[in-house]
């Protein structure tokens, strides 16, 4: 299987691969205090993966709602993605929104996909070439999506798991939001956490925009009591959950999924079941 994380040196050495497609999954606004130091530049040849507008349900009740299979398939084809494509995804915060796009490709059956460790900042810091972001005409690809429904959890799955505890629910939000001592960034939302969940903040698995070493990640994931259970990852709206998912993928063999509605859905529909 294609490595889930690759270095800027690897990417630099494979730029001439005809099957390579580079996707820029940077977002204009993020629910984070991090600010991108680079705007309107890209790795040469990168294509824009617009998570908000092209790869989420346009009429979804919650932010970043997982798209319908044909929405994702058609969006990928418009980007020129083929069944044979080798995809590398990055963003301009190092590692932030790129794991969400990576998880979506994996969930829709495309395994030849990797996240660029350190993203655009690491590429620039290595002294590699960039270009001004511009619109380009692309040939339609032949990508065919095949959904792994077990990789996406809904609110009923989470409710059932509170009782059965068959899976560990890992919350990637900050400790303050998880413990109910800091406000949620979205106005009107209470903070707190879903019963029986475990807090592993996404920033804890990162070091200057890159994933921490495997030894460091193993130490972090020691907070999970039983390593044999499947893992469900959650956050505010399903984006930073995928960062911790990606980190877990480096060191844990457990089956993994994402609670797509995450805290935004839970806090909206289950105020009686909040824990603060």
Backbone structural class: alpha/beta
Distance between the termini: 41 Å
User: In one word, what is the shape?
Assistant: globular
Major sheet description: 5 strands, parallel
Main traits of this protein?
single chain; 276 residues; alpha/beta; five-stranded parallel beta sheet; 27% helix; globular
Describe this structure in words.
The protein is an alpha/beta fold. It is about 25% helix and about 15% strand. A five-stranded parallel beta sheet has the order 1-6-5-2-4. A five-stranded parallel beta sheet has the order 8-14-13-9-10. Strands 3-7 form a two-stranded antiparallel sheet. The longest helix has 11 residues, at about 240-250. The termini are far apart. The mean pLDDT is about 90.
Summarize the structure.
The protein is α/β, with parallel strands linked by helices and 276 residues long. It is 27% helix and 15% strand.
Write the layout of secondary structure elements.
Blueprint: E1 5-6, H1 8-13, E2 20-24, E3 41-42, E4 47-48, H2 69-78, E5 86-90, H3 98-107, E6 113-116, H4 119-125, E7 131-132, E8 152-153, H5 155-164, E9 168-171, H6 175-179, E10 198-199, E11 206-207, E12 210-211, H7 214-220, E13 231-234, H8 241-251, E14 256-259, H9 262-269
Parallel strand pairs: 1-6, 2-4, 2-5, 5-6, 8-14, 9-10, 9-13, 13-14
Antiparallel strand pairs: 3-7, 11-12
Helix pairs in contact: 3-8
